[in-house]
Write a structure and sequence with these properties.
Rossmann fold, Helicase, Ruva Protein, domain 3, 4 domains, five-stranded mixed beta sheet, 14 strands
Length: 421
C-alpha cells in the first residue's frame, strides 16, 4: 500500500473514506497528509460521500459492494479496492465509462496507463499524455476529467492548428480593441475551463513566445487577457498531450525546459496499437457495433482478425477505426475476410519505397528524390486521414502549418495534392 499511496503526495487537499474501518489503510493515507474518516456503517458512509475525494473499500466489508454501486451511480468519488491492508486493484471508473469514451481493451500496456490515470485524476496535478498520433490521447484526457470530480467543463484546444497570435488569443482571451477585428471582449479557453479541465492538445507545437506566457499562467494560476490589464484568477486542471518526445524537443531548444517540468508533473505513456495486439478483437467489435448500422456486412471472420494482428498499425487506433468502417461499407452482406482487408489496408507510410543508393545519392538528383518521397508520404497520409489535414499532419508527425505550406507549394508548382483551405 505504501508505494501506491506515495503517488498521492503533493496533492494540495484530499479526504479519504475508508470503508470497513481498516486502521492500517487509514494510517497509510493519513501519513500522506489526507484527512481520513474510517466507517463501519453503510448509512453514515453514504452521508459522507459528498465530502470525500476518494473511497477505499476493504473487500471483506459486508457493505463494500453496495457502497461502490452508490459511488458509481453518483458519478464519484472514485473507488479503490483493498484486500486486507494491501491495495490490489482500482475499480473505478465502471467499464461503461470506458466504452462511452471509446477506451476499449484489457492489454497490460493499456491497463498500466489506466491505473496511472486512476491515481492522478482525483488530484489537481497536471497530466502529460505522451504517445503517437491516433493512440487515443484525447479519450484518455476525457477520462482524467471524468474521474476528477470537477464540476466544470472539459475544454479542448488544438495547439497545432492555430497560428501563434491566434493561439494566444484563444488561450488567454482578449479585450475589445486589442487588435484589428477585436470588436468585443472575449474570454479565452482558460477562463472557459474554470472549475473544469483544459486539454492542451499537441502542446509541442506551441511557439516559444506563447510558451513563455503559458508558463507564467500555469505558475501563477492567473492571466491577463490580450490587450488588457485586469488580472483574472483561475481554477483549471491542465491535461497536455503530445506525439513528440518533449525531452528531445527541450534538448534541441524547441521547447522550454521549465515549461516541460511544469507540464510533466504526472506523465503517462499512451501505448501504440502494435503494443496492444491483444486488444484488436475487442476494438474491432467496438467499431463494428458503432458503425454496423451503416452496412449489411455480418462482421469479421476469425481469419480476418488474425490478419489484422500482422499489421504494424502506424496510424494506431484511428487507422483501425477507419479500416473497419471502410471494410464494413464495402463488404456488402458478407463476412469481412483477409482478402477484403488486404485490398483496403493502407500501406505503412514509406512502405515499398525504393531506397536511394549508389550514384542516385549524388547531386541534384538526390534533392529531387527526397521531394518525391515527401510528396508520396503526404499523399498517403491524406488518403489515410480521408482528406483531413489535421489528421494527416498527426500521422506524419508535423504541424498543420507545415503540411499547409507543402500543399500550397504543390499547388503553386501546378501539381496540387489537395487545394489548400
Amino acid at each position: 500500500m505504501s508505494n501506491q499511496s506515495r503517488d498521492w503526495k503533493g496533492s494540495s487537499r484530499g479526504t479519504v473514506l475508508v470503508g470497513g474501518g481498516d486502521s492500517r489503510l487509514s494510517a497509510q493515507f493519513g501519513a500522506c497528509g489526507f484527512l481520513v474518516r474510517a466507517v463501519e456503517d453503510r448509512l453514515s458512509a453514504e452521508d459522507a460521500l459528498d465530502e470525500v475525494d476518494l473511497v477505499v473499500l476493504n473487500s471483506a466489508w459486508p457493505h463494500a459492494t453496495a457502497l461502490a454501486g452508490t459511488c458509481a451511480a453518483r458519478g464519484g468519488p472514485p473507488v479503490l479496492w483493498s484486500q486486507s491492508a494491501e491495495l490490489q486493484e482500482a475499480k473505478s471508473p465502471p467499464r461503461d465509462v470506458h466504452a462511452r469514451l471509446g477506451i476499449v481493451g484489457s492489454s497490460p500496456a493499456l491497463l498500466t496507463a489506466l491505473e496511472r490515470i486512476s491515481w492522478a485524476a482525483p488530484s489537481k496535478a497536471t497530466v502529460l499524455l505522451e504517445g503517437e498520433s491516433g493512440t487515443g490521447k484525447e479519450s484518455l484526457a476525457a477520462l482524467v476529467h471524468a474521474l476528477s470530480g470537477r464540476s466544470g467543463p472539459l475544454i479542448k484546444v488544438n495547439c497545432a492548428s492555430l497560428a501563434p497570435g491566434v493561439l494566444e488569443s484563444e488561450l488567454f482571451g482578449h479585450e475589445r480593441g486589442a487588435f484589428t477585428g477585436a470588436i468585443q471582449q472575449r474570454k479565452g479557453r482558460f477562463e472557459l475551463a474554470c472549475g473544469g479541465t483544459l486539454l492542451l492538445d499537441e502542446v509541442s507545437e506551441v511557439s516559444t513566445d506563447v510558451q513563455a506566457k503559458l508558463l507564467r499562467v500555469l505558475e501563477e494560476e492567473e492571466l491577463e487577457r490580450v490587450g488588457g490589464s485586469e488580472t483574472v484568477s483561475l481554477d483549471v486542471r491542465i491535461v497536455a498531450s503530445t506525439n513528440r518526445d518533449l525531452r528531445a524537443e527541450v534538448k534541441h531548444g524547441r521547447f522550454r525546459e521549465d515549461l516541460y517540468f511544469r507540464l510533466a508533473v504526472f506523465p503517462i505513456s499512451v501505448p501504440p496499437l502494435r503494443d496492444r495486439k491483444g486488444d484488436l478483437a475487442a476494438l474491432v467489435e467496438h467499431f463494428v457495433a458503432r458503425f454496423g448500422h451503416e452496412s449489411a456486412a455480418r462482421g469479421f471472420t476469425p481469419a480476418a482478425l488474425e490478419f489484422l494482428s500482422s499489421h504494424h498499425w502506424p496510424g494506431n487506433v484511428r487507422e483501425l477505426e477507419n479500416l473497419v468502417r471502410r471494410a464494413l461499407l464495402l463488404g456488402g452482406s458478407t463476412w469481412i475476410t483477409p482478402e477484403r482487408l488486404r485490398a483496403e489496408l493502407t500501406p505503412s507510410l514509406g512502405q515499398g519505397l525504393r531506397p536511394v543508393t549508389g550514384l542516385e545519392c549524388r547531386g541534384p538528383d538526390l534533392a529531387v528524390r527526397i521531394r518525391e518521397l515527401e510528396r508520396t508520404a503526404i499523399a498517403s497520409a491524406l488518403v489515410e486521414a480521408e482528406g483531413n489535414r489535421a489528421g494527416a499532419a498527426r500521422l506524419l508527425g508535423i504541424s498543420v502549418r507545415t503540411l499547409y505550406n507543402r500543399l500550397k507549394r504543390y499547388q503553386a508548382d501546378g501539381a496540387p495534392l489537395l487545394s489548400p483551405q
